[in-house]
Amino acid sequence: MPTVQRKELGKITHLARIKLGGKEQTAQIQGQVSRIIDFVNQLAKINVSEEKMSQYDAGLKNIFREDKEGELVKEKGPELIEQAQKKQKGFVVVPEVFKEE
């Protein structure tokens, strides 16, 4: 008997906004979801309390850097701001993108 009942599957498909085609597809998906849940339950039974945490180094490095004003901004910034249609206190004024509700 599947571990996921039709009523539960109905809730899952509603939350996922999935429409099932009929009884055959519902039974197929019900079986698949049940197998997934059974597998997760098996994993939950594994004792990992004595396992050491491992760190995996994929050769990634931190790409964040400190913001610095570039030479182009120093040279052309004031000129570009001057050309803007709207400006305020040395900044270009643009239309609002995000509006508060």
| Named CATH topology of the domain at 6-44 | Histone, subunit A
Parts with pLDDT < 50 across at least 5 consecutive residues: none
Strand order of the largest sheet: 1-2
Number of strand elements: 2
3D architecture notes:
This protein has three helices and two strands. The mean pLDDT is 85. It is 45% helix and 4% strand. The protein has a domain at 6-44: Orthogonal Bundle (Histone, subunit A). The two termini are 49 Å apart. A two-stranded antiparallel sheet has the order 1-2. It has helices spanning 6-15, 23-44, 71-83; strands at 87-88, 91-92. It is mainly α. A hairpin with a 2-residue loop joins β1 and β2 (91-92).
Which labels suit this protein?
101 residues, mainly alpha
Put the structure in a nutshell.
The chain is mainly alpha-helical. The protein has a domain at 6-44: Orthogonal Bundle (Histone, subunit A), CATH 1.10.20.
